[in-house]
Design a protein that fits this description.
Helices cover 31% and strands 23% of the residues. It is α/β, with parallel strands linked by helices. The strands form three sheets. It has a nine-stranded mixed sheet with strand order 4-5-7-6-8-12-9-10-13, with helices on both faces. α2 runs parallel beside α4, α4 packs across α9 and α7 packs across α9.
């Protein structure tokens, strides 16, 4: 997460997961199928962080390939000279409508950049694995963004260089930032209401924790590059007032990741993507989380 400190405030899998949604107040329900990797695989991937952003981009490509991204589905987008590119895996669906899933892989010099943001970037290939096992209506595009810590340069370049038609096909931009610090949270005030409702419904269906923690006064993140084009977006994170000081500090290390909570976030997001593919376009009945806690940058 781009943090403004001057402001106040073996490829084993677990198996096929099946759960039932009844978004509308009718007896009809639908089953969602997806697969989960074992927790030890998820943990090994977050432990695979590298020191340089070039090495992180290379590791991300390797993990995509291990998760089933075919060579013709894997691509790079050069953004700035002498810096790593954006890296993408495109998983075709039955339609050209797109669910875009993103996380930045770059990090600041302070700390190891595991929380911010290898925790999220290393989940991209695992989420690809989770949704690729079943037929999909939407085309999924998984993007590792470079340069988020440089005023969102990677995601900004990606969004700006889409054609008007390509932007119109993006039905959801799901952004992940700073996962693993605790239970899953959502930035409600900067999220599409329908996307929040689906996330809330997914958490309830799986009986997983989800809370609203707004970070308006803390900084920004890659989802905001898509807001100016009115692309529905949502950011999933785990920041609180108590963990905010870990960001951009020597404390951003692997030992700050709470592995049980981190795996729960993976389970929730994998189910959420499967639910979006199935239901996006319908009107969910559950209310979105309202208000929420607001994290603030510490006083200087």
């Amino acid at each position: 997460m781009t943090f403004d400190s001057t402001r106040r405030f073996g490829h084993g899998f677990f198996g096929v997961m099946v759960f039932v949604f009844a978004w509308n107040a009718t007896p009809a329900a639908a089953q969602i199928h997806f697969q989960l990797l074992k927790q030890e695989v998820i943990e090994s991937r977050v432990r695979s962080y590298k020191g340089s952003d070039f090495d992180r981009e290379a590791e991300l490509k390797k993990l995509f390939a291990e998760s089933g991204c075919k060579p013709e589905q894997l691509s790079e987008q050069a953004v700035k000279s002498k810096q790593p590119p954006n890296v993408m895996c495109t998983l075709p669906g039955a339609t050209d409508d797109v669910i875009l899933v993103g996380a930045h892989f770059d990090h600041v010099d302070a700390g190891d950049g595991v929380v911010d943001n290898w925790s999220s970037a290393s989940l991209l290939p695992s989420l690809l694995f989770s949704v690729r096992q079943e037929p999909r209506q939407h085309t999924f595009v998984f993007v590792g963004f470079m340069g988020e810590e440089q005023q969102l340069v990677g995601s900004g370049y990606y969004a700006d260089h889409l054609s008007k038609e390509q932007r119109e096909h993006i039905k959801a931009m799901v952004n992940m930032d700073t996962l693993g610090l605790g239970p899953t949270e959502v930035w409600v005030t900067h999220a599409d209401d329908v996307l929040v409702r689906y996330l809330n419904g997914t958490a309830k269906a799986l009986q997983l924790p989800l809370s609203a923690v707004n970070v308006d006064e803390v900084g920004t993140t890659d989802s905001e590059s898509f807001a100016r084009y009115k692309i529905p977006r949502i950011t999933i994170h785990t920041l609180t007032q108590g963990t905010l000081t870990i960001l951009h500090s020597p404390r951003d290390r692997l030992d700050k990741i709470k592995m049980a909570d981190y795996y729960d976030s993976y389970r929730l997001i994998a189910a959420y993507l499967a639910a979006l593919d199935k239901f996006l376009g319908e009107k969910p009945a559950q209310p979105a989380a309202a208000g929420g806690e607001a994290a603030k940058a510490p006083a200087q």
